[in-house]
Amino acid sequence: MSPNATDSSTILREERKMPNGCANGWSSMSDSAEEQCWKGQAFLKINEIVGMVKYYSLRAYIIFWHELSMNPRVRSSPFSPPPADELVLSADEIFSTRRRRLFFTSIHLLALAGLYFCVTGQVKLYTVLFALAVGIMSSIGVTAGSHRLWSHHAYKAKLPLRIILALFQTVGVQYSIYNWVRDHRLHHKYTDTDADPHNSNRGFFYSHVGWALMLPHPAFESKVSSVDMTDMESDWVVMWQYKLYAPLAAVLSYVLPTVVPWWLWGEDLLVAHLVAAQLRQVLTLHSTFLINSAAHMWGLKPYDKNINPTENMFVSVATCGDGWHNYHHTFPWDYKNAELLDYKLNLSTLFIDAFSLIGWAYDLKTVPAELVNKRALRTGDGTRKQPATDSATGHGDDLKTVPAACTNVYGWSDTDMPDEDRRMAQIYKKSD
After folding, report:
1. Eight-state DSSP code of residue 304
2. Helix, strand or coil for residue 313?
3. DSSP per residue, 228-271
4. Which residues make beta-bridge pairs with 324?
5. d(CA 386, CA 155)
6. Where are the transmembrane segments (predicted)?
7. Per-residue pLDDT tens for 150-162?
8. Is residue 86 predicted with pLDDT exceeding 70?
9. CA–CA distance, 349 with 258 (Å, rounded to integer)
10. 217 secondary structure, DSSP code
């Protein structure tokens, strides 16, 4: 029988002739027993810390560099034999995945340098305000543009507005509109399953950023070709941005935010780049990623308690209005993306409404209050405060007439959208 921990410790002390309870790693004969004990314990603790650092550094290296397909069975070393059923990746897949990881690592290191300049007061106030403005522009480009306009067709936009939104969306460096729409429609059709590109059931890290650092799940690969993208292919603004995405993103997201503060108010060129370009881009990137992670894990479910998406006020503030996610997955074709009567936490809705005043945004689709009330009573978790006028009219008596929530619809152009919802929809600023 093998010795237990206590026996092993005794044997070790006898072999090294150590005093009981001590390990005299570097103690001399002139040291007292108490000094030898203290030094021995410190030596063992240092060895333990060094061992932990080596272990976790190696694990981080393996996970970051070698686990390209997010296999949960992490190897003990880069040279250990792979599991028999491990996914075999092509050289191109390995290269593209590692390139994305290097890109994410580099922009985060540069963003930390930009944060240092902000914390130490080495950046001008104008530069910080400029970075904030550019960040809001890019967020609106994602929320009002690639999300509500192109992914869900929650409203229509004339050519000048489509060009503005395409340029704003490019500033965020969150893939082209075409790729963004394709992945987001798949997210709605297969929410929180393996076919969802950022499945929240695989944990916070994966749904937040991990999905962008590894190859997608085979279920995603099998379903992605089924997404109808003919409407995007017929929109020349989308295809123009798709073809020129790399140079456009470099100029709009990195070059201009660097040059403008330096040219207009004499900001240091390096500080301008690290704060207005790198730090701003990383912060807006993580703000959007919170929709996939935090807004699928923490919050209330007043409209449909049977799905993961939640109402998260913090995410709404960070994304200019896209954190009201339980409502959005229940009614994905509502241009407001929320049941809100004001613009305090929904700047994207304010942006769309402002352009509707001059006719550049039109066919604004929204859900009638009566339908929202009934749906919340039928499938919500009870956290939504029912309007007094609604309870007085007795709408709760006919819940059986309300169509069940269809949570696998990606938007107005989805052929799976229930006819009842389409007939009940309210459309503002209708086109002639």
Report:
1. -
2. helix
3. --HHHHT-HHHHHHHHTHHHHHIIIIIIHHHHHHHHHH---HHH
4. 311
5. 28
6. 102-119, 125-147, 159-178, 244-265
7. 999 999 999 999 9
8. no
9. 29
10. P
Return the pLDDT at 3: 34
Q: How far apart are CA 336 and CA 333, in angstroms?
A: 9
Asked whether the beta carbons of 377 and 351 are under 8 A apart, the reply is no
- Furthest CA-CA distance within the chain: 98
Torsions phi, psi for 20 (to 5 deg): -55, 125
Structure tokens at 365: 């689709």
Q: Are 186 and 224 in contact (CB under 8 A)?
A: yes
Output the six-digit token pair for 24.
Answer: 């005299």
The β-bridge partners of 366 are 426
Rounded to the nearest 5°, which phi and psi values hold at 9?
Answer: -65, -40
- Rg over CA atoms, the chain: 28
Instruction: Show the 3-state SS of the chain.
Output: CCCCHHHHHHHHHHHHCCCCCCCCCCCCCCCCHHHHHHHHHHHHHHHHHHHHHHHHHHHHHHHHHCCCCCCCCCCCCCCCCCCCCCCCCCHHHHHHHHHHHHHHHHHHHHHHHHHHHHHCCCCCHHHHHHHHHHHHHHHHHHHHHHHHHHHCCCCEECHHHHHHHHHHHHHCCCCCHHHHHHHHHHHHHCCCCCCCCCCHHHCHHHHHCHHHHCCCCHHHHHHHHHCCCHHHHCCHHHHHHHHCHHHHHHHHHHHHHHHHHHHHHCCCHHHHHHHHHHHHHHHHHHHHHHHHCHHHCCCECCCCCCCCCCECHHHHHHHCCCCEHHHHHHCCCCCCCCCCCCCCCCHHHHHHHHHHCCCCEECEEECCHHHHHHHHHHHCCCCCCCCHHHHHHCHHHHHHHCCCCCCCCCCCCCCCCCHHHHHHCEEECCCC
CA–CA gap between residue 159 and residue 163 (Å, rounded): 6
Say whether pLDDT at 89 is over 60. Answer: yes
227: number of Cβ within 10 Å: 15
The pLDDT, as a whole number, for residue 214 is 83
CA 409, distance to chain mean position in Å, is 21
What is d(CA 432, CA 426) in angstroms, rounded to the nearest whole number? 16
The predicted model scores a pTM of 0.78
Distance CA 206, CA 311 (A): 20
Q: Among residues 251, 276, 250, which one has the least CA distance to residue 262? A: 276
Give me the pLDDT at residue 401, please: 45
pLDDT at position 426: 63
Encoded tokens for 416: 């799976």
Is the model's pLDDT at 130 over the cut of 60? yes
